[in-house]
Amino acid sequence: MHKTMKLGGVIAISMILAGGLTGCGGGMFSRDKAPTDSEVLLGQDGRTLWESGLQYVKIVNQDVVGSLKNEHPESISSDELRTVLGSIYVSETSFFKREDNVLFSRAELHVLSTAIANGLSQAQDNEDINFVSIGQHKGVLAKERKTTTGRVFISDGRLNIVFGLIHEIYRDKDIATGQKIDRRIHPLNPGTRRFDAKPKVRVALDSGQANYLDPETGNERTDWLVIDIATVLAAAKERVTGDSSSVTPELLEDIARSKQDSTVLRRDVGKLKEIIFDMSDEIEKLKQQIENTKN
């Protein structure tokens, strides 16, 4: 079932993200340059599966020896992984209200599902998959580039993602100084088994998803997501009525986003009604003031 990502596919994806999509919303996958004009490649030494500027997916050594035993190499199709990654939502605040937003954009899902699935089929039991991804996501007033980084591995039949950053707003320059941010000093680090990164944004847990329970402290890790692959895939199919044979990852993704868009639309319509009501009240007050002036 596994689909190997060939060199041509890697080049094509890199060209699309580095060039073709730069015109969409300010270049969500634009290539970033270091102060020396040479590309900064982050992460540990390892086999690179995909790379574009600061973004990458690569096979690396486990960061803690004797940690959870990995079950690698493991075969999972890119379509299955896309459904699993597409099921992850994060809880964010917008206009003082909490709402759940997709963790990965469509472009991010396309790259990560293919590259990570390919990596899991090659990695050994002492290796993980690290990634850095930058995508266009909903902001307070407009879409913003946000960074998500993580360490991925499969253990006990479950997909583990240890996040370093979750929807961290990505900037090329420091807001206060206007100076270009040197990513060698401020790297976009993936997560680590050693300690909780405590990301500012949290994953909104759904069916088949849970935070990792640290056996040493007895506490849940806020940066460590454990996903039961079979449960998530089954839950995704159950959300679709009719013939399950026609279910595709793209359809499941569209349904999830349509549900989110409907929720946002209902919220916006409610706000619009409140504004109209407030305006009507103000208009009546203004009419009364005009009448009082005439008298």
What does this structure look like?
Strands 1-2-5-6-7-10-9 form a seven-stranded antiparallel beta sheet. The protein has a three-stranded antiparallel beta sheet with strand order 4-3-8, with no helix packed on it. 32% of the residues lie in helices and 26% in strands. The termini are far apart. It folds into two domains: 7-238, no CATH class; 246-295. It has five helices and ten strands.
Which short descriptors sum up this protein?
disordered N terminus; 3-stranded antiparallel β-sheet; 32% helix; single chain; elongated; 295 residues; alpha+beta; 7-stranded antiparallel β-sheet
The percent range for helix content is 25-40%
The tally of beta strands, per DSSP, is 10
Order of helices and strands: HEEHEEHEEEEEEHH
> N- to C-terminal separation?
83 Å
Q: Multimeric state of these chains?
A: single chain
Strand content: 25-35%
- Main sheet summary: 7 strands, antiparallel
Mean pLDDT, rounded to whole units? 77
Class from secondary-structure proportions: alpha+beta
What is the total number of structural domains?
2
What Rg do the Cα atoms give?
A: 22 Å
Q: Judging from the principal axes of the Cα atoms, what is the shape? A: elongated
